[in-house]
Amino acid sequence: MAAASLTGARMIVAEPQLLDTPSLVVDEALLRRNIAAMQALAREAGVNLRPHMKTHKTPEIARLQIEAGAVGITCAKVGEAEVMVDEGGVEDVLLAYPTIGEPKIRRLLALMERAKITVALDSREAAAALSDAMVAEARGLDIYVEVNTGQNRAGAIAGDEAMALALDLARLPGLRLTGIMTHEGQANTAPPETIEAIALDAGQTLVATAERIRAHGIALDHVSVGSTPASRYTPGVAGITEMRPGTYVFNDTTAFRYGHNGPDACAARFVVTVISRPAPDRAVIDAGSKTLALDKSHGHPGHGYIVGHPAAEIVRLSEEHGVVNLPPEDQAAFQVGDTFEVIPNHVCPALNLMDELLIVRDGQIVDTWRIAARGKVR
Amino acid sequence: MAAASLTGARMIVAEPQLLDTPSLVVDEALLRRNIAAMQALAREAGVNLRPHMKTHKTPEIARLQIEAGAVGITCAKVGEAEVMVDEGGVEDVLLAYPTIGEPKIRRLLALMERAKITVALDSREAAAALSDAMVAEARGLDIYVEVNTGQNRAGAIAGDEAMALALDLARLPGLRLTGIMTHEGQANTAPPETIEAIALDAGQTLVATAERIRAHGIALDHVSVGSTPASRYTPGVAGITEMRPGTYVFNDTTAFRYGHNGPDACAARFVVTVISRPAPDRAVIDAGSKTLALDKSHGHPGHGYIVGHPAAEIVRLSEEHGVVNLPPEDQAAFQVGDTFEVIPNHVCPALNLMDELLIVRDGQIVDTWRIAARGKVR
Hints:
Two copies of one chain form a homodimer. By secondary structure, the first copy, chain A, is α/β, with parallel strands linked by helices.
């Protein structure tokens, strides 16, 4: 984004000085606009939208996504799915993460009584344990195979390895192989001009792997990709059936990198207060790593963007202190007690640090939503 | 620490495979030993110990610190102090952070009914607002002036500037200037061989500033320093009266740097499970940045130390994935479903991501303590 739009960006809260800070605020109109825009992208690409709830962790927002047309929700951990089903009324969940270990499998079985659950995994060991549990309970579980299309985190390598794994898993009793998935996260950190090519390559690689599995008589219904930055590209590949972006509901400074979404598309901000002015060129805000998280941005320097003050760089975070370098033109505007909005670098882990978010309509706080799946690491 | 001690380190949980993971476990005996050791350091230095609760955020642990001889507790935010007073029975709190803004000052006034509170600050603006509030309520508040002895985060610069601020604040009605404090955090990131000199210099600088303020007839009772790595040095400076270390209750991989505390002094660990083995030299554990936090260590490579496996480096974290590079000798030991203990790089923000900790006695889980002040950013 050009510096001009960073300079002209507006705060969403009319009277931030009345808030106890730091507080997480979400503009309802921007949130709904972001949800509608991604649903439109899915519709244009002709794929199902199954948003990852890691960004919002909030039952009310899952409801908005479903109402807008999402076919279900993506979670990582069983504890997140429990919240989305029990508090968000979600009826269809993909756990895009292996469910491993006796305590979790017990919880998974209980959750399957209340919603349709699919589990993605990438190992024979994880599949065998799930198969044993399903057989013992006379149940059936839908599974996806996770495929590595270049991120090199988890997943069976696309091609021979993924096909061999899929064929083995399809033979296990109690499991039904219904899809394959990838997270094309390698697109997100590559140079912006390369994202389209990387995303398309990941999508094509995944579809080719699906075709090879289908050649063995397995009817894979779902070929699933995920990532907000790649969401304009990968889902459009012929043969992709499902997309799982997360960050788009709020956006963050990392989105600035791609030119589609600037600050005025960022629905979630932290209202912060200047608590110290120890030097003419230094202010300290009451949001440190315990509020903004330490994630670097690929779209903006420092540890977040102070709305309307692009040159005031948050250069250092300790747990409760955000140290801001002030250029001469900003030095008068940052006095002790002044309040600002900060857009975080990576909104998902920052939101995970908070217990609730304040809903803003036309500048006023109109509601408080509990981030009910915050901290559900299990 | 020599690699030998990292190799020989032992796990604290006897049957980690029975736990739902990731879980935070704390060895009770190690915790008590660490608390006693720091109390002994304070006694030898002849200073009061007022531990910072940012590391544990847990009322039960504050009680252990007070029972061992701590004169009170240090907090940053009012919300933390509310928990420590109401749930931990703490009667004397230093808020080592400016209390700014009408909502917080109202909560501070309420809290002052239930405990002795002192507030540290570094600006005339923050002091004026507190003075006005105290006068309006016919109350009196003890304050410290925060002094910058080289960390260059917050604080009035030691010497002329800090003295001028102290004299101004001492004249404000409703406030009683009873002390000055510094956080000599610059010692923690400097080369280990320089820590003693940097810590001593910070302590001497603070004492010299105290003497200059006293020369104006102000009886400063408290000259307060804080930092676990510097705790063997700064409190010993003649004229220092109080120390505020935090991390020592648990220790973390950053402590390895200083040679006093290795893994066997680390009371808090995360029990984690291998959830993927996508390549011979790669394992993925179920603890990412949502569990271990992103903080770098100054004492160990990667994103944490896997107990007993010093060469298995956690090279990359995403929110739910910890990617581990496995050297040949570790490749057989990391199978899908296997459990390990991980000591985090910086235990304070990692603990802040969890809701509870499991207390371990002789290898068995004997209790669950709620991290009641987790997420209290206000």
